[in-house]
Specification:
single chain; 203 residues; alpha/beta; Maf protein; 7-stranded mixed sheet; 6 helices; 7 strands; EC 3.6.1.9; dTTP/UTP pyrophosphatase; dTTP diphosphatase activity
Length: 203
């Protein structure tokens, strides 16, 4: 049994491309960065804590538990000048983020954590993608905010949505920017006996 520790519809859709069956078990954790915590260390810690929280939630649920359950968690952060840009809490917040990203290159760091139930086999991976934005006008930022797309997105944009019009160039993993790097996910899952394409049938 594979368990996805995320409520993100984007991660669910991506995982659904490479895994036939899995169970979604989202968790809420404190996502406050530690003082002086580097962006990559923060993103990896978030994935680890999400996996651990999902394992704890799964273990405390009523019903039969599969001892061979595998848990996968991920976290994505938009980083510019070493600063992690979270999800905007207001238009002003989104405006500040998008104005800062406008016409510049930034990094999208996505981490993965895959663990078994006993947590004696835990693997992590971190994928960094460089994204270059074109210049964005204040009118575009206001119009984009009114679509509601930026509301729950790190860095106040969604590359798979209308926010993709801001992206001039990308170097790295597109799926990682969306929320789940497919190549790295498949590689880690294979080490837990989950072989994506080999186990699928389209007949």
């Amino acid at each position: 049994m594979l368990v996805l520790a995320s409520a993100s519809p984007r991660r669910k859709a991506l995982l659904d491309l490479i895994v036939k069956e899995f169970f979604v078990l989202p968790v809420d954790i404190d996502e406050t960065p530690n003082i002086n915590e580097q962006a990559e260390a923060y993103v990896v810690r978030m994935a680890l804590e999400k996996a651990r929280a999902s394992i704890a939630k799964y273990s405390h649920q009523a019903g039969d538990h599969s001892s061979d359950a595998v848990f996968i968690a991920s976290d994505t952060s938009v980083v510019i000048d070493g600063d992690v840009l979270g999800k905007p809490t207001s238009f002003e917040d989104a405006h500040t983020m998008l104005r800062r990203l406008s016409g510049r290159s930034h990094q999208v760091i996505t981490s993965l954590c895959v663990s078994n139930l006993n947590q004696d086999h835990v693997l992590t991976e971190c994928v960094t993608t460089e994204v270059l934005f074109r210049e964005i006008s204040d009118i575009e930022i206001r119009q984009y905010w009114q679509t509601t797309e930026p509301v729950d997105k790190a860095g106040a944009y969604a590359i798979q949505g209308l926010g993709g019009v801001f992206v001039r160039h990308l170097s790295g993993s597109y799926s990682a920017v969306v929320g789940l790097p497919l190549y790295e996910t498949a590689q880690l899952l294979a080490q837990f006996g989950v072989h994506s394409l080999e186990e699928m049938s389209y007949e």
